[in-house]
Design a protein that fits this description.
This protein has 480 residues and is of the alpha+beta class. Helix content is 26%, strand content 26%.
C-alpha cells in the first residue's frame, strides 16, 4: 500500500467519523415538498422584463494573490484577458409577481452563498413580490475562485478571497434591484439553432443546440437575450493565468457588433463537452473564435416562437448524498461553505442540502440544476454494455430528465443556485480501485475518468431523478 492508498483510506475514515458525529449532533430536518407557483397575464401576451449589468473585478488584481478557478490548485492570477461581469434579468407577467435570473461570470457559487444573496434581498422580494432569485454561473475556468477548491495546496487553504466574494455578492444584489427598476413591457420569443461545428466530446451523446430566449420591448429599445449552450467554458486552458469570462464574453461581444443587445448566458449539459480544438489551435484564439461562431449563430436563429405570458416556478430543496471524502471534508477545512445533514444513504453518512428549480416560460420548460450534467443524463443516449466503462447495460442508469419532463426540448441551466459537481451515469462511473476520489482512473477502453473525482458520488443521478419526478408530478397536478 503506497502513500496515496494510505491517504485515501485515512480521508475516508475521517469522513465517516464526521458523518457519525453529525448524526449524533443533529437530525436531518424534513424537507417539505415545494408547490409550483403559477403567474399569468390574463389580458394580453406581454411580459415585463428588465436588465442590468455590472463588472465585478478586484481593483488590486495583480497586487494581491487571487487564484484561477477550474483546473489546478495554487494557480495565481497574473493579469486580465477580459473582465468578469454579473448580469440580471427581471421577468414577470405584469401580474402576480416575478422572478430574477442572474448570469455571473464565475466558476460557481455554493448554495450557502446564493442564499446569502437571497437573504440580503428580502426587502426587495417583499416589495416586488419576487417569487425566486436564481443565480446561474457561466462556470468559466479562467475566473477567480469563488468556491474554495483552488487555493493553496500545502498547507490546504481556501482559494476564496473574502473581500472579493463580498464584492461579487454585493454586485449581484445591485443588478437584481436595477433589473427590476429597468423593466419594460414587451413580447418574449424562443428559438434555437444547432451549432455542431463548435464543440467536441468523447462521450456517448451531445446536445449541440444554442437556445435563445428573446425579449423584445414594445418601445423599440435594446432587446434582452438569455442564451443557453452546452459546452464547457474551459477554453483558455489549464496553463492560463489571465482572468477571462471565456467564450461567453466573445459570444456577447460578437452579438453586439451587429446591434446593441443585452445578453445573459447559462451553460447547458457541459460534462465532457468542450469548444472543439478544430476551431483554433491556440487556446486564446479558440476562446475568441468559439464565442464568435456562437454569436453569429445566435443572430441566425429563424424559428422564433412567441411565448404566452405565463410563468411557472418550483424550487425544491433536497438531500444529495456525499460519498466523495475530499468534498465532504472541504467544509471542515474551511475551504467551502455549505449546509450538511446526516444521511442514511451512501458510505459517509452525510448529505449536502441543495436544490433544483423548474421554470416554465410560456410553453418552454427549463430545469435549473446545481451541477454539471452529461448530455445523456438529460436527453438519453447512454452507452450500452458493449461500450460503457463498466460493461454494464444502460438499464441501470437513471431515466433521462427530459423523458420525465415529457419534453425532448427540455432546457437545462447548469451550475445554478449551487455547485455540486458532475452527474455521472451509473454504467460509466469508474473510480480508482485503491484511491477513490483522490486520483483518477482509466477504464477498459483507456478513457480517462476525471469527472468522478469531482462528483458527489454514485448516487447523484438516482437522487436527482427521484426529486425531479416528484417535482413534475406536482407541476402537472397544478395544471389540471
Amino acid at each position: 500500500m503506497d502513500l496515496g492508498d494510505l491517504a485515501t483510506k485515512a480521508l475516508k475514515a475521517i469522513a465517516i467519523k464526521k458523518g457519525k458525529s453529525l448524526a449524533k449532533k443533529v437530525q436531518a430536518p424534513v424537507i417539505e415538498k415545494a408547490q409550483p407557483i403559477v403567474m399569468k397575464n390574463k389580458t394580453d401576451d406581454l411580459f415585463n422584463a428588465g436588465f442590468a449589468c455590472a463588472q465585478v473585478m478586484p481593483k488590486d488584481v495583480t497586487a494581491k494573490k487571487y487564484y484561477i478557478a477550474g483546473y489546478k490548485m495554487d494557480h495565481p492570477v497574473t493579469g486580465v484577458n477580459d473582465p468578469l461581469t454579473v448580469r440580471a434579468m427581471w421577468l414577470d407577467c405584469k401580474d402576480g409577481g416575478g422572478i430574477v435570473l442572474v448570469s455571473a461570470d464565475v466558476i460557481g457559487l455554493t448554495g450557502f452563498e446564493v442564499n446569502r444573496v437571497r437573504e440580503s434581498l428580502s426587502d426587495f422580494t417583499k416589495k416586488t413580490d419576487c417569487k425566486l432569485i436564481n443565480i446561474s454561473c457561466t462556470h468559466s475556468h479562467a475566473s477567480i475562485d469563488t468556491v474554495g477548491y483552488w487555493g493553496r495546496l500545502m498547507p490546504p487553504q481556501s482559494g476564496v478571497d473574502k473581500e472579493y466574494l463580498e464584492q461579487l455578492l454585493a454586485a449581484i444584489k445591485k443588478v437584481c434591484i436595477e433589473a427590476y427598476e429597468n423593466r419594460k413591457e414587451g413580447k418574449m420569443y424562443v428559438g434555437s439553432v444547432r451549432v455542431p461545428e463548435v464543440i467536441s466530446t468523447g462521450r456517448a451523446s451531445v446536445d449541440d443546440r444554442l437556445t435563445r430566449f428573446r425579449f423584445v420591448p414594445e418601445d423599440g429599445s435594446a432587446e434582452t437575450w438569455f442564451l443557453n449552450f452546452g459546452a464547457h467554458p474551459n477554453t483558455m486552458g489549464g496553463d492560463n493565468t489571465l482572468i477571462s469570462a471565456d467564450y461567453p464574453c466573445y459570444m456577447r461581444r460578437r452579438i453586439n457588433e451587429t446591434k446593441k443587445v443585452n445578453v445573459l448566458f447559462a451553460v447547458g449539459p457541459i460534462a465532457a463537452v468542450d469548444i472543439a480544438p478544430s476551431v483554433a489551435e491556440d487556446r486564446t484564439e479558440r476562446t475568441i473564435r468559439g464565442g464568435q461562431i456562437l454569436g453569429d449563430a445566435a443572430w441566425k436563429i429563424d424559428n422564433d416562437e412567441q411565448l404566452n405570458s405565463e410563468i411557472t416556478v418550483l424550487c425544491q430543496s433536497y438531500y444529495a448524498p456525499v460519498d466523495n471524502s475530499i468534498l465532504a471534508l472541504m467544509p471542515t477545512m474551511g475551504a467551502v461553505t455549505c449546509k450538511k445533514a446526516p444521511c442514511t444513504q451512501g458510505v459517509l453518512g452525510m448529505a449536502l442540502i441543495t436544490e433544483m428549480t423548474y421554470l416554465k416560460i410560456g410553453s418552454r420548460q427549463i430545469l435549473m440544476i446545481p451541477g454539471e450534467a452529461f448530455p445523456e443524463n438529460i436527453y438519453g443516449g447512454y452507452a450500452d454494455a458493449e461500450h460503457s466503462a463498466t460493461g454494464l447495460s444502460a438499464e441501470i442508469n437513471s431515466t433521462p430528465l427530459a423523458e420525465i419532463a415529457e419534453d425532448e426540448n427540455l432546457i437545462v441551466f447548469g451550475v445554478t443556485n449551487d455547485m455540486t459537481g458532475y452527474m455521472v451515469p451509473k454504467n460509466d462511473f469508474i473510480l480508482h480501485p485503491t484511491q477513490a476520489y483522490v486520483n483518477t482512473w482509466h477504464d477498459r477502453f483507456d478513457r480517462h475518468h476525471y469527472h468522478e473525482t469531482n462528483s458527489l458520488g454514485y448516487l447523484t443521478t438516482e437522487v436527482m431523478e427521484k426529486v425531479f419526478r416528484g417535482m413534475m408530478e406536482r407541476v402537472r397536478n397544478a395544471q389540471k
